[in-house]
Every structure is written in structure tokens, then in C-alpha cells.
């Protein structure tokens, strides 16, 4: 897999080259290191002898409801970015590309990698750095790994004091290539005590020789334990690492251990870096690269979509929680965990009909409820009659500060706090439950579509509008759910009212669309319904975009005050 | 296979027990009320009564003695918490090793966890699960 | 088998070239199980005492470390009531190039230089940090009470 172009004979040449580089330090820093996203990686990969087109690339497929990605750089203040943003992959980071034009404000650039692509990426970086450091490929790889792939401090340290940098990283200064030999009558393996010229031994660059069998057993033991590049020479107090060349020499022929070794290397490549995470979905093999730094997480929600379909937050790896930032989302989830056992208010899944008192379980996502017993129509959220909600008036999204004041007067402060929490939790939970039901709805919808196709001889593409509507519904449910978390921690002011208006608009439109999809026969002839659903879907989507754009910008502008 | 000496075998079991492995329905540790703990002879165990039986929601404490030839020779067991069970002496709580399968058919590969799980399933067996029980929490005088 | 060969060689060398103040002998029935006697190092509270230990080489040895514990009661911050020893080379710092000899030497060195910041016996470590003089006094007392006087 690795090609070693240099051998120990031209070590001196490399050394000379290194001197050249240190003299031209300023030059290469400018031309090779000031990397930004516009810098194409073509040159670098070609230098490495890896044909650009041979590298498999996979991009997150952009679906109708998934954020599209563009080549634009991330829109937050670039001054916030940590080292890794300008790091080594600046040149190679080529985020998901979309032909849809400009990136929308809430979207972040990211790229999805499969394990082969991750390996190719490591190789490309090493190949690019090898001539810069003028060290062997093995040494370059180890140096990069022990600097957690942060090239700038590595180059700086190396140029200042190469010997110290190598020693500290666990790389032998004398870069003799590791080999397997025999024929030394003075040899004794300090592990199994075998001795003599017949014994075949492994001689790494640190000079501590052990018989091949023992060295391999030692190595495999560590590899099976999950280790890769951090495996040290077995000699006590020797800090030299077993490099890849040596490891591959020892593991040659043992396909299982080699595969495990490669997996471990790739795993640490992702784990060692701030700009990479594994997709947290169970058994998912993909990793995501994204350059939103930790420091930007209070104002940005880096929602990314893996090829496996999992939409999650790059910052905390929880499921997508736009538009609530990570710290509010985790605070909220923690609060819900703490309060769920002590409070009895999680009775949100069943309620009594306000008219006939029969118990009603919500089994669909729409808030427009009709009691099976007495046919009373009401809103699930506020329990008020549905007739009052009409088309324009929808008083269910905000915590009524007036009635809350009354509550504070009559009951204790803690009680009022709880009331407030219950208010937001009820709405949060409502959207969560509805989102789950939306998945069920999708199944019914598919059946409906089949029926429509049969009855009206519509083509598949003509009934696609139903599943589009369900997609939009579920993404809006997720966003709405988290708007209540944002609102819970928001200090009430005029800016909050504007936010709540946006929230209310989206919520109302979402409920209407839900009702249309769930009970299509209530809304007239099929052609009518289709037109209504398509129109409503478009409208809901535009409300969703408005809300996300507004909250994204609002967070970046510090438009809202949050409690503590 | 190298034969693990009694003491290192018991140390291994102790470390597993300290980490609290298994499903949490059975647990054990060294009895530190005994003076000479270096010998690791005296142990205490706890069994959560099996569901769908008279033992449900009850907690049973036991004393286990691992002799010099453990695990070649089976341990000796007695209940500290009063229990009505076939093979358990109603006055002393001592478990008759011939009356419970896990002790009757003891193998050196069995552990204290195997023992406790074996007793727990014995408690849930048809001839034990419906026996009238002493007051909850009452103890044998041992 | 390679491991057995190594163990036999180690035993042979331990007999031919014994470590001063340390006696390690396999128990007849089990070549991996050793009875060890260690003299307390000079200028330590363990001086003048002979301590009994047991050592076992597990199946994975030398890729995995030996298991060792004191059988004599010890007052030492890195040794607990069961005689278990907190020493890095017996855990994550183990290297297959280490031997029974080096392990026992390291344990002897630990008796000379207790490390209360990485304790196994918390109450002893606490005493060692707050009142070292008293701790050393207790350790000296325990040596007289529990250790075997050297022949």
C-alpha cells in the first residue's frame, strides 16, 4: 500500500534537502502553507503520485429536505477559527458541492468519508509533508500522527530542532529502515531467551532487537487491543514507536491483523482531530469532516447529514437540534432527564376530552383532535375548541406571560418555574411525538399513493407530492421542537416576540399541512387536495427557511438574551 | 492451560465483583468483618429475589466460605436472610450442597457468580417459588 | 513452548545468579507459581524484616505481566490489605522484555520509595502525607510485628 521511494542509502540526500528547506523557510510557508479553501488540492495529490481522479469521493446526497452544501467558506467570523481550520487539510478539504447556488445561512460545509477515502486522505497528507520535512515516509507519518496532524507546530518545531522533535515524538533520529534479519551468533531475544545465528529477529531503527515471533506476538496483542501508531518498542524506557513500515513487515501475511491495524490507524486519524467525527449512528462506517470550531458552537448549529441518512450535530453528535445551540440543547436534555422522574406532568400522551371526559390517546401527528365519543373538536396543545383556532388565530405557541404572572401571584415561585417549564416541555414533546407519528404517517402515505396511482392512473412522479409533504413535515417538527428549547432559555423582549411570531407561523402552517396529509378526504376532490398539498408544502418550506435563516443570523448577532 | 493458584483465582473474582459485572441481580465481595482477609476465605453474597415467585422484590444476603482447595472443592454456603427453600436448613440457613444443582455438580471452572446465579434459579424453580416465606428482612442467628 | 522455555531459563538464572535479598522459587507442582521472600531494604521502615510474597506467571506471560502480592501484612501506601501492589510495570507499563528479576527489584525499590500520590491503600496514603513520621513509625512497628526476622 505504501511505496517507499527512498531507502537508507540516500538518507544524506534527504538531509541536504532539509537544509535547503530551512533556508527557504519563508518561501514555502507562503506558497504551501497558507492554505485556504480556494486552494485546490490537485497539485498536492499529484505530487504524491496519487492520481486525482482515482480517489473515490462521496458526497452527501442532497435531498429535497436536506440542506444543500456549497463551496463557500463557512459564514461565521473567520477570526474565531481554531488551528484545525487552517490546518493541514485546508488544501484537501473540498466540501459537499451543490449546483443549487448560494449556501443558506444555517448550512455548514462538511464532507462525508468512507474508510477508504480516509486512508487515501492520510496518505495524501503524508505525501505532501514528506518533502517539506525531508524525512522518510515512515518518520513523516509518525511525526504527523504524534502532532495530531497539526502541521504548523510540527514544521515549526522540526525546523527549530529536528533531533529533539523526532525524539519527543518517538521517532528514531537515525532513520535506518527496519528489517528482519538473522545470522548473528551473539543475538539473544530478551523475551523468549532464544539465541544464536539461526534466530530470525526484527531490527527497528531504535536498535532494540527481538525475535520475529515475539515482536509479532507483542504487536498483534496491542493491535487487537485497539492500538495503532502509539505502540512502543518493547524495551522498558525506550520511547520509540513501532512505525508503519516495521509493523507491516511484521504483520505481512497475517491479513486479519493487518486489516485490524489499518482500521485502528484510520480510527485514530479521525479521533485525533477536531475537524473529524464518526457518524454516531449504530454500525455506521462513515466519518464527517467539518471545520466549525468549538468556539463557534454558541452561535452556530453545525447540522450535518451522513450518507447513512443520520442527520446530526457535528458539535455534540446529538441528533440535529437546529436552531438551539449545543449548550442549550444539552442543558435542556439534562433538565428533562432530571425532572422526568420527580414530576408527574409527563402525562402528555393521554388527555381527557374537555367535554365528555373520556380518555384520548393521540395517535396521529395533527393537533386538530376529534373526540371519538362526543365528536368534540379541539386543539391538542391548549385543549381549547378547534373552532377558535380558525385559519389565522393560533394561540398555542407561546407562554402567556399574563397568565403566568397570575400563577406567580397565587403560587410559589418554584411552582411558576415548573408551570413555565411544563408549558415549553409540552410543546417540545408534542412535536417530538408528532415527528414519530410522522414516520408512521409515511407508511400510510405510501399506501395512499399506491391507491391514488391505481384509482386515478397517475404516474409515480405525480403522486410524489405526498411523500415530499411528509418529508417537509418531519423536518419542520424537528425544528419546531427545538425552537421551544430556544424560547425556554430566552429572556422575554421584543426580539423574542418576533422570534415567536416566526415560530407561530411555521407551527400553524405545519399543523395545517399535517391535517391535509393525514385526512386528505376531508378536503375535497383529489385534484383539489393535490394542489392544496403542493401549495401548502411550498409554503411550509418557505416558513421553515425563514425561521432558520432568522434564528441563525439572530444567534450570530446576539439578538437574544439567554438566561445565565 | 496454566493452573491458576487459588489466591490469584480469588483475586480475579474479587476484582470482577468490585467492578460490579453481570446483570446486577447477584453480587458478592469479601467479608471484611473477618480478621484475616489475606486468606480470602470468607465472602458475602447478595441475591435479588427472582420475579414471578414469592421471592420477588426481596433481597437475600448469604455467607460463602472458600476453603484452601477452592475452586477444586466447592464452597460452603449459608443464607443470612431467613428463607424457606428446599435444601436450606430452616434453623441455620445452611445450604445442603447435595440439594442444589450448582453445588452438587460443582466444577472448578465455576465461580462465585455461577454459584449465586445457580441459587437464584433454584429459588425460582417450581418446588421453591410458592413456599410460604418468613417475614421479610428477618435474619438467621449466624 | 516458547513461554515455558523462557520461564525455565529465568528460574535457572535466578538460581545461578540470585538477586541479593530476594529468594524466588517455583512451587514444585506448578512451574508458574513462585514463593518469594524479600528482605526489607536498608534505611527503610521495612529494614530488618523478611516479607513473604507469591508470584504467578499467567498463560499470556511474558506478553502479560506476572501477578504478585504480599502475604505478609504491610503498612505501605501502595500495598493494600490483601497485599496487592500498585506498581505501573505490573499494569500498563509492563513490557515483555521485563523479567521476574526486574519485577522483584522494582517491588523492593517501591519499599524504599513509597508513592503516596498514587495510593492503593487510601488511609495509609493519607497518613503518609499528613504525618510522615508517624506513618514510618507504624510501618516499622508492623515490620517487627508481622515480618519474619532474617536468619
UniProtKB/TrEMBL annotation, chain A:
The keyword Membrane does not apply. One of its GO terms (molecular function) is zinc ion binding. It catalyses: [E2 ubiquitin-conjugating enzyme]-S-ubiquitinyl-L-cysteine + [acceptor protein]-L-lysine = [E2 ubiquitin-conjugating enzyme]-L-cysteine + [acceptor protein]-N(6)-ubiquitinyl-L-lysine. GO terms for biological process: protein ubiquitination. Gene3D superfamilies: 1.20.120.1750, Zinc/RING finger domain, C3HC4 (zinc finger) (3.30.40.10). Residues 185-400, 189-237 form the RING-type domain. PROSITE patterns: TRIAD, ZF_RING_1, ZF_RING_2. SMART domains: IBR. Its EC number is 2.3.2.31. Residues 7-27, 33-47 have a biased composition (Acidic residues). Residues 1-81 are annotated as: Disordered. Residues 49-60 have a biased composition (Basic and acidic residues). It is an enzyme of class 2 (transferase). Keywords: Metal-binding, Repeat, Transferase, Ubl conjugation pathway, Zinc, Zinc-finger. Residues 62-73 have a biased composition (Low complexity). SUPFAM superfamilies: RING/U-box (SSF57850). PANTHER family: RBR FAMILY RING FINGER AND IBR DOMAIN-CONTAINING. This is RBR-type E3 ubiquitin transferase. It comes from Coemansia asiatica. The lineage of its organism: Eukaryota, Fungi, Fungi incertae sedis, Zoopagomycota, Kickxellomycotina.
TrEMBL record, chain B:
It comes from the Eukaryota. SMART domains: UBCc (SM00212). Gene3D superfamilies: Ubiquitin Conjugating Enzyme (3.10.110.10). Residues 5-142 form the UBC core domain. InterPro entries: UBC, UBQ-conjugating_enzyme/RWD. The keyword Metal-binding does not apply. The keyword Endoplasmic reticulum does not apply. Keywords: Ubl conjugation pathway. PANTHER family: UBIQUITIN-CONJUGATING ENZYME E2 (PTHR24068). This is E2 ubiquitin-conjugating protein mms2. It comes from Coemansia asiatica.
TrEMBL record, chain C:
It comes from Coemansia asiatica. Belongs to the ubiquitin-conjugating enzyme family. GO terms for molecular function: ATP binding; ubiquitin conjugating enzyme activity. Residues 2-148 form the UBC core domain. Keywords: Acyltransferase, ATP-binding, Nucleotide-binding, Transferase, Ubl conjugation pathway. Its EC number is 2.3.2.23. It is an enzyme of class 2 (transferase). The active site is at residue 86. This is E2 ubiquitin-conjugating enzyme. SUPFAM superfamilies: UBC-like (SSF54495). It comes from the Eukaryota. The gene is UBE2N. Signal peptide: none annotated. InterPro entries: Ub_conjugating_enzyme, UBC, UBQ-conjugating_AS, UBQ-conjugating_enzyme/RWD. It holds the Pfam family UQ_con.
